[in-house]
């Protein structure tokens, strides 16, 4: 019996306009009314998730920063897995050496070692990657007002930065040079104790080896007395892969990468065709049918 559903956000829960469809919100509410807990499992940090939840009046648990953080329905932190300081310094050194602008998610906000103009270029590319119909000038205008950019804090001295006792959760970078992204994935992957993944072909995401969606989700659900076959997960990309390895009741989006589709138990419609809503409703209907059959057998 499915008692818990966890869904990735970008490319999964969110449509092409980076929003949650009304029908999907209704499906989530229907699941929760049926006694099924719904959670978001994303590479995003809490601040970029909170606004969407408030917009749609959703109170859900959240796996954040690819599994570096877990929060309850009220935003309280339940679990944290940080990147070790020594490893974080190595990552910064390699990224700076290769002129790859990155955002550093921490307990004190989001930082970068890049200049403001370098950071803006990264956010412009990210904006164009999400919205390919925009020109570079249009993307710049959007990027300059995005929280991804306006909330950035700048690191002038790496040693001083770490003296403040900051906790580093995750690194994320976008770049239009795919070869550079692939090379950096390989290089960073050689640092012991790190998990290197991506949400998109043109980005790279780095967390502690234990800060992966599947690992932290299993830890929380197990603590709450749930077996793995009572958990259904949905996703589309590399940073969802650990969930598909751990949880049997796995659903890939039609727009998912081939590697995720290959390991999934089910495939639903795309994120632009209410794939998550359809999967949730299917799960709820099946569970209700099981209950009805059980009652009929009494």
TrEMBL record:
Gene3D superfamilies: 3.30.1240.10, HAD superfamily/HAD-like. One of its GO terms (cellular component) is cytosol. It comes from the Bacteria. The lineage of its organism: Bacteria, Bacillati, Bacillota, Clostridia, Eubacteriales. One of its GO terms (molecular function) is phosphatase activity. Its EC number is 3.1.3.-. SUPFAM superfamilies: HAD-like. It is an enzyme of class 3 (hydrolase). Keywords: Hydrolase. PANTHER family: 5-AMINO-6-(5-PHOSPHO-D-RIBITYLAMINO)URACIL PHOSPHATASE YCSE (PTHR10000:SF55), PHOSPHOSERINE PHOSPHATASE (PTHR10000). This is Phosphatase YwpJ.
């Amino acid at each position: 019996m499915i008692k818990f559903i966890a869904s990735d956000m970008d490319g999964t829960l969110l449509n092409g306009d980076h929003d949650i469809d009304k029908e999907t919100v209704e499906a989530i509410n229907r699941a929760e009314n049926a006694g099924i807990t719904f959670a978001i499992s994303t590479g995003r940090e809490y601040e970029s998730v909170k606004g969407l939840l408030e917009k749609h009046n959703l109170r859900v648990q959240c796996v954040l920063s690819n599994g570096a953080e877990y929060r309850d329905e009220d935003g309280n932190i339940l679990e944290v897995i940080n990147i070790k300081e020594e490893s974080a310094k190595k990552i910064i050194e390699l990224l700076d050496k290769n002129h790859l602008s990155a955002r550093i998610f921490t307990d004190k906000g989001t930082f970068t070692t890049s200049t403001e103009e370098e950071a803006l270029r990264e956010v412009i590319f990210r904006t164009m990657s999400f919205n390919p119909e925009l020109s570079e000038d249009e993307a710049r205008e959007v990027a300059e007002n995005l929280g991804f950019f306006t909330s950035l804090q700048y690191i002038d001295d790496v040693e001083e930065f770490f003296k403040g006792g900051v906790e580093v959760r995750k690194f994320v970078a976008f770049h239009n040079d795919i070869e550079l992204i692939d090379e950096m994935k390989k290089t960073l992957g050689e640092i012991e104790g790190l998990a290197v993944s991506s949400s998109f072909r043109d980005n790279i995401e780095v967390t502690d080896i234990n800060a992966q969606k599947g690992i932290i989700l299993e830890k929380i659900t197990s603590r709450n007395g749930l077996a793995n076959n009572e958990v259904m997960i949905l996703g589309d990309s590399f940073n969802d892969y650990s969930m598909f390895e751990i949880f049997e009741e796995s659903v890939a989006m039609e727009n998912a990468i081939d590697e995720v589709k290959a390991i999934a138990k089910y495939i639903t419609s795309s994120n632009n065709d209410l794939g998550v809503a359809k999967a949730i409703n299917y799960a709820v209907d099946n569970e209700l049918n099981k209950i009805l059959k059980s009652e009929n057998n009494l």
